[in-house]
User: What shape does this take?
Amino acid sequence: PSDQQYRPAGRPTPLENVNYFVIQGAHDADVSLFMGDRQYNRVRFTDDQYWFKTSLYTYRSNHGQFNTVWGDNDWGQPMGLMLNRKTLLSGEEQRTIAKVYFTAFLETTLRADSSYMPLFRDYRVAADWLPEDIYINRFTDSTFQVVCNYEEDVDVTSTTMEGAKISADNLGVWKEADLRTRVSRSTKQDHVVHLGWRGFEDEAEETEETEEKSPPIYMVQLPEDAGDILGLSSESFLVFDLSDADDKVPDPDAEEDDENEDDAENEENNQENQTKDVNNNEDEAESEKDEEEKEQKKKEPIEITLELVTDEGLSVRLPLSRFRSLPPVTKSRFSKIPNEGEIYGKAYEPTLQTFEIPLKAFVAENPEFDPQRLRTIRFIFGQGREGVVILDNLGFSR
Assistant: This one.
């Protein structure tokens, strides 16, 4: 999809009280930015009926192969000869994704068949139906009650929910900003929080304070009556959107550069990395893709622990990976052109993944844990490598 090519009364298109599904290929060489994310964020649920919105980001899909007409040439001829087609799923595979999701969405929306709902909440339930690929999906329904969506003001300690507050310890990055696309000056018109840390274990070894030093933590403190306001129970889900930012934690001793200069330098470095040892030969482009995939597999996954604390001080910790892993950084090479960064910007566009964490899992871990008395949500970082993540839309659903 594109966005804002049609602006009724000069405004972005609003959608209210409808079901919404959007799909995007990470190798879409025509509409390379996931503009459907903007519309996803603008969909609102305001009545008492049940609605949902969902998105699917599929790594090796392009623009034209969800149908049988446009094909794998997103540029047309003769420029299409420069496209990197070896990365792509086949047309049949890509249309399989479309058939599964379009059919499920229409059955759910037009025939009220709720049996397909798990597919939208978690693509893994349909893994046997889908071609092998990297998938990222988002899901929000009308039962969702927001605690933090980072749209309210410029204060990083404030929350959307009245009476709640945010704090943090030992973070190297803690900033709220508009989520950017591949192109640094283009955004998804969605404010998020960036959280970064330097790697707790390594830093602890260097300072010989392993037992004393606290890990990097991001904390959301709920108001005293949160259990009643949010209707918390063992049937509730803690919900949030998360993505690897593919960024580095800045050196605290280094002089801070101007943001625009920083962006320019990052883009220049990105282009240099993309173009290194690359020419217009298809075999070399494929070789580079293979090497990139190998490097991605070697990279340690980001490790995050969730800790929920009641008003009595009872805490339960569970690793995020118990529920699902943070999606890998999916870098796209659209063409065999060495300097394609001048066309597309960065090779990676952060795309949020929805995590739905059942509170009953914490009850199972410790039967004394009472979701009704939940007061603090903690994200504990730094058990492995350093990293920066993007967090958005934290709240609860049923």
